[in-house]
Amino acid sequence: MSITVNAAFDSGNILVAGIDGDQVNLTIARDHLSDFFQWFHFRVAGAKGRTLTLRILNASESAYPFGWPGYKVRASTDRQNWRMIPTRYVDGVLEFEWTGTSELVWFAYFQPYTLEQHDALVARIALQPGVTHRELGQSLDGRAIDCLELGTGPKHVWLYARQHPGESMAEWWMEGALEWLTDPANATAQALRDKATFHCVPNMNPDGSFRGHLRTNAAGVNLNREWDTPTPARSPEVLCVRSAMDETGVAFAMDVHGDEAIPANFLAGFEGIPSWTDALGAKFYDFGQRLAAHTPDFQTERGYEKAAPGRANLSMSTNQLAERFGAVSMTLEMPFKDHDANADAEFGWSGARSKTLAHACLEVLAGMIDGI
């Protein structure tokens, strides 16, 4: 049987450069109207009984080539369990091998979270007691920007994910957060809902998610550089969410992402905003310190460089919301690799672990909400 490679499905991305026997040469397609690329997701048919060598030839030209050393491809034969497989990055080529025990195998940059999964999550959570669904607006391709709201408290908390669609761990985190918040047996969640009203946007960029983009929407726009001046033509996804935030105000916000290079979970804050105060910053730092003490899947030693005073980029959501609302605002970054301080040799960082980290984040928030 001949080998075939296919990525013509929800969140798929790969191009075939050539197949020579058991060697499969591939390239990752760029985001539409953009030079960004790194996300891949494809299947191989006809793999059974063969040892395939798969090579992504343009890996060195990707958005974050410094993320490839130490990275491992995720593979699955059932689309449920995604295990890391040995991967090497040599001379600008990402290369991995697969010995087929089944006809079909799927490969991805990280465990996928498809739009079909998103729709199922929204439908399931919208049916839970006390949950209200709102369609805040639509994307450039006409897809819904879904928001799930719950809680009755006076403090407005916004949780939103997948501004960068290739960072699929972010929507796994959102699934974990929504399940935790709606668990009827969770007394901590009930107490938190009494003190806060939650607005949860599981996927800010459904077009990019479906198209298999790494970082941009259907117009090739990086949504996390649009928060100062979003427009209907470039970034209606941001415009509708920010407008809804203007209606409610924001006390606490978490923007959920993934990082290509750093093998750890970490937070980025709003240092450098014009209205920075040590008192507001202390609440952000306190959250990180409490989270690191609460779970071995978080740390505070590794992360991004802080912006200098007055130099924050207000087109990024975390900075914009802290400046606009005085919010305790933060970006959560999870790894495409693993959280090295608490590593998993089989699965690495995963969807399941992203969900568990969401539980930990909300447990910490429950202990701080009175002071926010």
TrEMBL record:
Q: Which UniProt keywords apply?
A: Carboxypeptidase, Hydrolase, Protease
Cofactor dependency: Zn(2+)
Describe the location of the Peptidase M14 domain by residue ranges. 111-372
Record GO terms (molecular function): carboxypeptidase activity
Q: Which InterPro entries match?
A: Cytosolic_carboxypeptidase, Pepdidase_M14_N, Peptidase_M14
Coiled-coil-forming residues are: none
Q: Which CDD domains match?
A: M14_PaCCP-like
Q: Name one Pfam family in it.
A: Pepdidase_M14_N
Keyword Protease assigned to the entry: answer is: yes
Write out the catalytic residues in the record: E333
Q: Where are the transmembrane segments?
A: none
PANTHER family linked to this entry: CYTOSOLIC CARBOXYPEPTIDASE, CYTOSOLIC CARBOXYPEPTIDASE 1
Q: Which family does it belong to?
A: Belongs to the peptidase M14 family.
What is the official name of this protein in its record?
Answer: M14-type cytosolic carboxypeptidase
